[in-house]
Fold:
Amino acid sequence: MGDTTFLVDPMFASPGENPPVPNSPNNRRNPLVPMPAVDLSYDAVVVTHRHSDHFDEAATEELNGDVALFCQPEESEAFTEEGFTDVRPVNDEITFEGVTIHRTPARHGHGELAEDMGPVSGFVFESEKTVYAAGDTVWYEPVKETLGQFDPEMVILNGGEARFEQGDPITMGIQDIAAVRDATDATVAVVHMEAINHCLLGRDELQSAIENVLVPEDGMQITV
Structure:
């Protein structure tokens, strides 16, 4: 955002270093892909929630311990215990280097399963442009309300339609993404695909089902 770079939900493990997600439809070890060759310089880190496909042990080891780290209030103590010295929980909004960071609602699934998944958040980054990173959520009324409140230029969705062997998906699938596409004029980019074993919706299937969404390949750069 301008001259400030935010690293969101770092997972640094090498391919296959982590086990499959428990109770998932296959036994492929995570992550499924290597880290792409991208510039990983950053000014701050933002963590939507502490599930291992958003913040893993390798990230704990590799990140600078004194980096400004923004997170949910419920998880700030865990980061402090891991040795991070500049943890900044976001209750509602906070400003960093001229960028206002708003924490937004998210729901990691449906019904009781969403409750079991624990707290999750999205974040809106607002400066000259506005970017909404929805985090691990399905489509529901607060996502629609966030789009209306902030009118972002770009929306980043976690797709993949992640699921367990029982229950409904816990991240966005085709219908969720289509609902977002219909609700905003923003550029919509879908990430979190083809990298974790329980994310079963692939890029080709999504692109054939919905028009006018960006589905970047690993390492691809998109500019607002």
Remarks:
- Residues 204 and 215 are 9 Å apart (CA to CA).
- The mean pLDDT is 96.
- The chain has six helices and ten strands.
- Helices lie at 57-62, 76-81, 111-116, 141-150, 174-183, 203-209.
